[in-house]
Amino acid sequence: MSDSAGARLIGFRVGSAGAALPLGIVREVTERPRVVRVPGSHAFVSGVALHGGVALPVYDLKRFDPLWSGQPPPAPAGPVAESRHLIVCDWGEVALGLLGDRVDLVEETETEAGRADGAAVPCGVSDAYVKRVLHRDGEVIVLLDTDRLFASLGVPAAEPRGRRKPGEDDRAGG
Questions:
Q1: Which residues lie below 8 Å from residue 148, measured CB to CB, with a gap of 6+?
Q2: How many Å apart are CA 130 and CA 79, to the nearest integer?
Q3: Is the pTM value of this prediction over 0.85?
Q4: 116 - beta bridge partners?
Q5: pLDDT tens digit sequence for 26-60
Q6: How many C-alpha atoms does 148 have within 13 Å on its Cβ side?
Q7: Which domains does the chain have, with CATH numbers?
């Protein structure tokens, strides 16, 4: 999937901050399943959830301190304190889940895309994890840098798409 204008993204909320991921890595979005905490894991690892008969690691980006340039944004006011959706992502051969709210399909257009370029990202996300800043209906949405984010979470590296040389690991030369 290209990161160019016109790309389709999955937008979601992390607390009160708007975030987005490339649609190409999102397998599905479900209601939040039962998540079982794993003793001794980092605070940002919510635990594991049974998904399709497989244990899926689940991450809560609100609790991932390096993602935030200051304090994580507060959750929107309301009765539900926990995120309501699980965004299941494929990252190479690894599947993982991210917790989020208000999940929606976002179409990136040339007129709305920009980059922070050293300026503070308005929603409080650290610039190190931002690929692009989008504006939609008066709201700031950051396209997350999945390479950096997933590496920082401890997810094994995925083979970057389109960077493999012809014939590499392919004895047929394709």
A1: 128, 129
A2: 30
A3: no
A4: none
A5: 999 999 999 999 999 999 999 999 999 999 999 99
A6: 12
A7: 8-153 (2.40.50.180)
